[in-house]
TrEMBL record:
InterPro entries registered for this protein in UniProt: MbtH-like_dom, MbtH-like_sf, MLP_fam
Protein name in the entry: MbtH family protein
Domain of life assignment: Bacteria
Organism of provenance: Streptomyces antimicrobicus
SUPFAM superfamilies per UniProt: MbtH-like (SSF160582)
Domain MbtH-like: start-end pairs: 2-52
Length: 69
C-alpha cells in the first residue's frame, strides 16, 4: 500500500511558503521548502486539521495578487 494512503501510519501536516498544505508520512523527512505545521498524529486527525486550516487552496502569491486589484 502507498504510505500516503495507509491509515496505519502516523502522519504530519506540512506547509510551504505559498501556504499550501500536504499530508506527509511522519517517518519521512520533509522535502525542501516544506515545514511541519501539525504534530504527528493519525491520518484522519491530520486530514481534519488540513480541512479546518486550509480553506483557500489558492497559493499565497495568487491570493495577494488578487488583493492588489
Amino acid at each position: 500500500m502507498n504510505p500516503f494512503d495507509d491509515p496505519r501510519h502516523t502522519f504530519t501536516v506540512l506547509t510551504n511558503d505559498e501556504d499550501q498544505h500536504s499530508l506527509w508520512p511522519a517517518h519521512l523527512p520533509a522535502p525542501a521548502g516544506w515545514q511541519q505545521a501539525h504534530a504527528p498524529a493519525d491520518r484522519a486527525t491530520c486530514l481534519a486539521w488540513i480541512e479546518a486550516h486550509w480553506s483557500d487552496q489558492r497559493p499565497r502569491s495568487l491570493r495577494t495578487a488578487g488583493a492588489d486589484r
